[in-house]
Amino acid sequence: MFKRFSLIAMAVVLMAALALAGCGQKEAQKTTEESDVIKIGVYEPMTGASAAGGQMTVEGIELANEMYPEVLGKKIQLVIVDNKTDKTEAANAVARLIEKDKVSVIIGSYGSSLSMSGGQVAKDAGVPVVGCSPTNPLVTLDNDYYFRVCFIDPFQGKVMAKYAYETLKAKTAAIIMDISNDYSVGLSNFFKKAFIEYTGDEKSIVAEMNYKTGDQDFTAQLTTIKELKPDVVFAPGNYGESALLIKQARELGIDSKFLGGDTWEAPEFIEIGGDAVEGVAFSTHYTEEAPVTEVSEEFLNAYKNKYGGKEANAFAALGFDAYLVARDAIERAGSADPKAIRDALSQTKDFKGATGIITLDENGDANKSAVIKKVEGGKFVFVSVVEPE
Amino acid sequence: MTFQLFLQHLVNGISLGSLYALIAIGYTMVYGILRLINFAHGDIIMLATYIVFFGILIFSLPWWLAFIISIILTTIIGVTVERAAYRPLRNAPRISILISAIGVSFLIENLSLVIFGGRAKSFYQPHIFTKIINFGGVSLMSLTFIIPVTAGILLYCLTYLVNHTKTGMAMRATARDFETARLMGIDINAIISLTFAIGSALAAVGGIMWGLRYPQIHPFIGIMPGLKCFIAAVVGGIGNIPGAMLGGFILGLGEIMLVALLPTLTGYRDAFAFILLIIILLVRPTGILGEKIAEKV
Fold first, then answer.
1. 3-state secondary structure of B34
2. Could you tell me how many CB contacts below 8 A there are between chain A and chain B?
3. If both were cysteines, with which of A79, A165, A223, B150 could A198 make a disulfide (CB 3.0 to 4.6 Å apart)?
4. Are B62 and B180 in contact (CB under 8 A)?
């Protein structure tokens, strides 16, 4: 009797799972039949270690799509694929968007590693990509088809080194980086270079420790750092791992100041880190406090209306801008042909976005100011704006 | 390296090792009786943390009540999994049950992803567990004491149950030979359900401790601890309860010392566990405390 019951229960659960999986597929099928739409693909981490960042970005993209749903008299259709914070999945996601969904242009991804593995596929297929927040220089280097609406890490690393040296008066620094994450490795190296330049002391970086995405125990690395008593610890990485890391540092009695990069701007960072992350500072792309263009105001109002109660964040703003830049390029190209859109994208100049004026340079990078924020009273608080040189 | 620094590393290693040990005991219990590697163990751990999370967030339960409810619900889930996915395959070849276990693991992970979402959530940490104690420059969280003590008490209770009670005798008989045990009048279904109940309760305790130590939870949180604690159980001698403890400590201390002494090899931290597994399988396949088992004919 019970055996039969359990079999039925299993069948019901399986069917529910299949039905849920089926929903997504049906939608995709419907779209291939329509030809009077222009498709923009989106590949972002909706699950895994960068889920919060990816989801915030997608919020911004969807908001922009609601406000500007048409181009060239056709409807723009978003095809969103989850890359699961996995390099292989990211490459597959881009291949799927190009081959199966036949998109004209792609937006994504949060995470430099994910963008790099997707970028190669897009380059080979000749479909342009507009990155929202991948900040590693290698993302667009040697890739004519990759563009981005954010600043890059040499600048971000320098901003934080300057903040550490000038504002915090730090003489020594330790670095803890996620070696499986191109963003973290790149940013750490640029910070190191700039910090040594500022202090004029080769030995001002007292330690460089490593970990890997997914690690949860950092006590061994931190114990080594504790002994060296650096003034600041630069620890860019995924918000989840970083929050755990800082928490464990405080438990071990490390009272150095912690600094990081734009990935820390996720509500989860504060939720997980709690009191331990009070006072940490990081660089990011955008702040509500200082809207830079009229589009910023428009974005802020629309965001508040749509996601009432939630604070607007840099990733939503960058997603919003990436969509607008892509749409603008389609308009100027006058067609949905990927090659024409690529050429139009490379000509993007003085485009007014929510995060500032976007001009793409010969590498396809935007030259923009950075914002420094810190955590105070369980909130992200604006500290200052740093202009590019 | 100063002595103080070494002590701190040692404490860190014991802290991580006792957590591994706690979870490894669950694996070993189920394997000892059923000869089944319950690959869903890690996912049961994950479910336990989510039950606490929702208990505190939605029903605003006090943390200790949330913990107790989590242990009870997790136990029910564990027994249900056994009924639904393993019992129908009792007489099938062992590989079928193994595949079924992997299937259950994927099912739980992906259902959780749909239900709970992919974004990480923070696990509630009552202050009593996170109080920091300082011993001449060596920092300890009170959890660092609580975990090994809990593991020790559970170890004692389990060894007592298995070696000195009638139920324990029935368990050992079931482990030796299903059919003969049944002929001797043992209700093997009840014994197996009980084993799964204990295994899942252990998973819940392990999950809660894991959440308290590393307060970030998401649907895939159970995979790595699950895998590593399985390795710990094998290293110690799978099926052997004190062995699981020992394996957990070896793994935890080994990982911390690898990072502490050879910082350039940090990236191979997870590889360390697998290399250890391979070495043990080559040198002593039954594990450090495992007995040599004659193949049943």
1. helix
2. 119
3. A165
4. no
Q: Which residues of A touch B141 (CB under 8 A)?
A: 251
**pTM of the predicted model as reported, rounded to 2 decimal places:** 0.88
3-state helix, strand, coil in chain B (%, to 5): 75, 5, 20
Residue of A nearest to B254 (CA): A220
The answer to whether the peptide bond before residue A109 is cis (omega within 30 degrees of 0) is yes
Question: CB within 8 A of B26, min separation 6: which ones?
Answer: B38, B41, B199, B200, B202, B203, B206, B229
| pLDDT 10s digits, B212-241 | 999 999 999 999 999 999 999 999 998 888
B2 in contact with A at a CB cutoff of 8 Å? Answer: yes
pLDDT digits (tens, 9 = 90+) for A197-233: 999 999 999 999 999 999 999 999 999 999 999 999 9
Q: Nearest residue of B to residue A10 by CA position?
A: B84
DSSP A101: S
Q: Is the dihedral of CA A165, A170, A172, A173 positive or negative?
A: negative
- H or E element, residue B260: helix B241-261
d(CA B49, CA B129): 16
Mean pLDDT, to the nearest integer, of A150-166? Answer: 95
Question: Do residues A219 and B256 make contact, with C-beta atoms less than 8 angstroms apart?
Answer: yes
When pLDDT is averaged across residues B39-62 and rounded to a whole number, the result is 94
B267 in contact with A, Cβ within 8 Å = yes
Which residue of A57, A82, A178, A216 to mutate against B (max B Cβ within 10 Å)? A216
- ipTM of the complex model: 0.89
- SS3 call for B240: coil
**What pLDDT is stored for residue B267 in this prediction?**
83
Place of tokens 């019951």: A5
Count of residues for chain B? 297
Give the nearest partner residue to A223 out of B12, B255, B264, using CB atoms.
Answer: B12
Strands A370-376 and A281-284: what pairing? antiparallel
Residue A4 is predicted with a pLDDT of 54
DSSP A10: H
